[in-house]
Amino acid sequence: MAVGTSRLPDQPKPGLAADLAAMSSSDGVLGPPESVQPAAIYKLYRGATGEVGSQNSRVWVDFPALQLCWAAYDLLAGPNDRLSLLDLTSCTCQGPTEGKDVGVLRVDIYSKVNSHDVGGLGGSPSTQGEAGRVLVSSEKPSPVLSVSGVAGSGSTLRDFSEALMQLLASRDSEGSRGLEFIQRRLFQYLWRHQGTNFSEEALYEAQAVLAFNLEPREGVAYLRGKLGKGSDAEVGEWLAQMSTQKGGLDPTVLGSYFSRRDTLEVFKSFVRCLDFRGSDIVEALRLLFDTFKPGGEGQVITRILEMFAEAYFLQWASQKDAVEPRTEYSNSESVEQVAVSLIMLNTGLHVAPKKNAGKRIVGAAMTVEEYIENTRRVVGPEQVPEDALRAWYEAVKQTEISVEPLPRAAFSKLPVQPDIEGWLVAVFNSQVQRRYWAVLALQRLYLFSDANEVEPADAMDFRDATVRSVNEDKACKERFNTDLHGSQSKCRCFASTGRADLVDAELRAFEVTLPVSNRPAILQKLTKPRTRLALVAESADLMEKWVSLISSGPY
Q: Computed from CA positions of residues 253, 259, 261, 265, in that sequence, does the dihedral angle turn out positive or negative?
């Protein structure tokens, strides 16, 4: 499908080779650093977000250049926003202890360089108190970079600082050869191609999970086309299987999908596949809402409970003598009435107080007598004895039935191993270049902005795409240079533009051309929409990996 590439040498920054040679104590064979875990290298390359000089930014390690970098969201690091890993001296992290969700983390990074060697964001020299300022002092050195962020489970800043400490300790104890190994073999830490470990059906299934979590309509369309789930009943059965057995579907996304009226038949099949046998109605409701979190208005919950009641009644009737507390439902409508009363109870006891924290809500939390009285208006004691109502009241009071939507899972948490992932710079024109975290998974490329690691900024379908190495195609090279410099510019001195990340860009760039029908949103938004996109990897070696994996497809 695509033109291949030949291996090109990586291009380290000027002076780096000499520095490495000076620090190397022997001419031994390069090997991975023994005291640095692969996960730490990945965390450093991926980086972390926080505030630098009061601006939302990302800090990361550019291993091909062996530099610590920082820049505002989605921008490239300027020449003054970089430091050699050989010049860093230490890293500290201050703030709440790990596991605490309250407080601010501050990561300070120190270097032996002089203050005039480092600038702030955007390349402007830092001033007193700003991130990027370095004061060389024998008494109390100032950090070359300070990054702050909110502590909590979603923060990656602490992990980044700990990984950087680990890397610097390894450099000091093992020498620079470990850094050289990472520089030359970075793809080994990013390349997670798993195609040979999966059957064709498993690969399609993984892609369907991935697509559904990002866009349910697309995931269902993929199910119907690739896995032969042609009917709503088959789609519902597959969704139930993935939710309860294999895992991977985002409960909030699934709930949003089921909130739509056009998914009614799919939900009927889904809920009938859930195993409620032997469960009382509270346990069954917990199981139901563990698989998905409904969204929308109260009428959405009512519609869901109606379908649930039909499924639960059929399974309860087949072995009702095994279910405690004992009940004698006459039909699914009775089950629905009880389910509604329990959700109302759950809302009063748990949901409303959380939504109205600090406010006094009159009559929101029902007593057990009030709950029994309210339920008796719709279901008589011959179907649901009082001891059952009291038992259910206590069960809900003690443990909430979780129906509220959860935060979306980050892409990195999804159960899909990408073929490759890493940083790519999208070159739109001479004035606009954006740096994205790119994930290639089963012939789809997902581009993530620094501002959101859950929702991709865009996704590209590469099934009918053509990919070329810029340096090996004359026409492609001319288009790339026009995009990068403008149609009037003949200059090839990238460094003079101040875009340090684009030094030797031709050697690291590839072009993807897509059919008009698959043109991604980022290309449609251009002043002159087009079907091709130039992407720059962080090294020639990584560029080859991207081109090879895009060309070969998922098998």
A: positive
Distance between CA atoms of residues 410 and 413, nearest Å: 5
- CA dist 528 and 482 (Å) reads 14
Chain segment 189-217, per-residue pLDDT in tens? 775 434 444 566 776 777 788 788 878 88
Residue 435 tokens read as: 């740096």
Q: Facing residues of 125 across strands?
A: 119
Name the residue among 509, 514, 488 with its Cα closest to residue 499.
509
C-alpha to C-alpha distance for 1 and 463, rounded to whole angstroms: 9
The per-residue DSSP string of 86-129 comes to: TTEEEEEEESSPTT--SSEEEEEEEESS-GGG-B-GGGPBP-TT
Maximal C-alpha separation, the chain: 89
Query: For residues 212 and 221, what is the distance between their CA atoms, to the nearest angstrom?
Result: 9
Sign of CA dihedral 304, 306, 307, 310: positive
Query: So what's the pLDDT on residue 431?
Result: 86
Between helix 216-226 and helix 232-241 the angle, nearest 10°, is: 110
pLDDT tens digits, 16-66: 434 444 444 444 556 778 888 888 998 999 999 999 988 999 999 999 999
For residue 240, give the DSSP letter: H
**Cis-peptide into 325, omega within 30 deg:** yes
For the chain, the distance separating the N- and C-terminal CA atoms, rounded to the nearest angstrom, is: 14
- Of 474, 477, 465, 471, the C-alpha closest to 531 is 465
Sign (positive or negative) of CA dihedral 34, 37, 42, 45: negative
Question: In what helix (H) or strand (E) does residue 82 lie, and over which residues does it extend?
Answer: strand 82-84
Report the candidate in 541, 428, 446 with the shortest Cα–Cα distance to residue 437. Answer: 446
Average pLDDT over residues 72-92: 93
Q: Is 424 left (phi over 0), alpha (psi -120 to 50) or beta?
A: beta
Do the beta carbons of residue 535 and residue 508 sit within 8 Å?
no
pLDDT for residue 227 is more than 80: yes
Q: Amino acid letter at 170?
A: S
Closest to 465 measured CA to CA, from 424, 515, 412, 419: 515
Residue type, 522: I
**DSSP secondary structure letters along 24-58:** ----PPP---TTS-HHHHHHHHH-EEEEETTEEEE
Q: Minimal CA–CA distance to 378: which of 421, 414, 335, 435?
A: 335
Q: Which amino acid type is present at position 488? A: Q
Task: Supply the mean pLDDT for the chain.
Answer: 80
Q: pTM value?
A: 0.64
Residue 226 confidence (pLDDT): 81
Of 59-73, 102-116, 166-180, the poorest mean pLDDT is in 102-116
Q: Which of 12, 10, 8, 113 is nearest to 65 (CA)?
A: 12
| Cα(435)–Cα(536) distance, integer angstroms | 9
Strands, E, within 98-254: which ranges? 104-111, 145-150
- Does the pLDDT value for residue 250 go beyond 80? yes
